[in-house]
User: What shape does this take?
Amino acid sequence: MKVLLPRLCLGFLLSSIFAIAATPPGKNLINNIELNNNWQMQSSSKINAGDADVSTFDFATKDWYAATVPGTVLGSLVADSVYKNIFYGRNLEKIPESQFNVPWWYRTTFTIDKIDEGQITKLRFNGISYRADIWLNGQKVASADSIKGSFRQFVLDISKYVKPGANVLALKITRAQ
Assistant: This one.
């Protein structure tokens, strides 16, 4: 079983992806893959593509920021030196709040070596702040009307969307209104 674990916070906390392979009765083979590294993010206001396109290999992420997962958009922007010394003086007040009024995209790639017949692959989020549309390899896996809440765990069966080899996972995160 493969489990991919991503984490963020507009973010979201993506915990893992895990797969359960067909195994003898009474035995479960669980293989977790943590998805905490190699994330990128960008404001949806700067994306000129359809939502499905963002989760494909053909989509270019040239001007995207490195994202820290788990983490927040602001935390990642500070880590990327977009904003500096935010806790000095009144620097935090100088950050334009309007940039957080639109959704932000988070994107990563991951590899699954092989998928056995009958294997179930699940994606686990240990929190999303506040709601998310989730895309994998150009296919919508879940929508923001059902994926919402900072202190909830979400487990999604992605067996029909994941493929052996490289995969692209994209989340469109929207803050609470």
In short: The helical segments are 51-54, 73-79. The chain has two helices and eleven strands. The two ends are 37 Å apart (CA to CA).
